[in-house]
Amino acid sequence: MADTAELEVMPDDWQRALAVVAHPDDLEYGGAGAVARWTREGRSVVYTLATRGEAGIDGMRPEEAALVREREQIAAARVVGVETVEFLDHADGVVEYGLPLRRDIAAAIRRHRPELVIMTNHRDTWPGGPWLNMADHRHVGLATLDAVRDAANRWVFRELLDDGLEPWDGVRWVAAVASPRATHAVDITATIDLAVESLREHRAYLEGLGDASMADPSFIRAAAAEAGTRFGGGLACNFELIPM
């Protein structure tokens, strides 16, 4: 049964956010409209991706796909005002939850010192149905939650201190996009066109998808309208907000 509870307004008393996701396009399928609003308001948002999405285009060799999808993600980020995009170079499709992933994400948190960490849905399923969420999303999400604590502890991953990365305990929230347990939302009526444009930058990926519904950027408008029904109308991007 779909959750019909009203969504609360996302906190706005912050200046720096770090988005940590598994693949190019993950943020464009939901979060980009909120990112565009935040950067327009003068906030800083950095993207960190676990992979380069090299396994995401069936008709393209991974070595080529990695380069193509990296370029597409950087272009998509710029549409919504994000200039810094990092890739951690874990293997697409087989991302493993474990210490190497936690260490890499903790290092990113220490580098960028965010108050808000954004990620995609880490739950087993997606909203509105029993569809299984893929392992890469679940593993990166869980590692991100753990890495927030790792980043704050001087004696976890002590080698990061040798790299000049001092602990950071300033993360106040983690916000998961497209979670079946959404609690909060941001009005993206003014930035929905930017969200759609940012998805369209993933041209090679969209052309390679076999699912026409997911390749159609109108999907973004429909999802935003649905979220808006729980947020006073209009268009919205929803999040599961996890206080830290």
UniProtKB/TrEMBL annotation:
<dbReference type="GO" id="GO:0016811">
    <property type="term" value="F:hydrolase activity, acting on carbon-nitrogen (but not peptide) bonds, in linear amides"/>
</dbReference>
<dbReference type="InterPro" id="IPR003737">
    <property type="entry name" value="GlcNAc_PI_deacetylase-related"/>
</dbReference>
<dbReference type="GO" id="GO:0016137">
    <property type="term" value="P:glycoside metabolic process"/>
</dbReference>
<keyword id="KW-0862">Zinc</keyword>
<protein>
    <submittedName>
        <fullName>LmbE family N-acetylglucosaminyl deacetylase</fullName>
    </submittedName>
</protein>
<dbReference type="InterPro" id="IPR024078">
    <property type="entry name" value="LmbE-like_dom_sf"/>
</dbReference>
<dbReference type="Pfam" id="PF02585">
    <property type="entry name" value="PIG-L"/>
</dbReference>
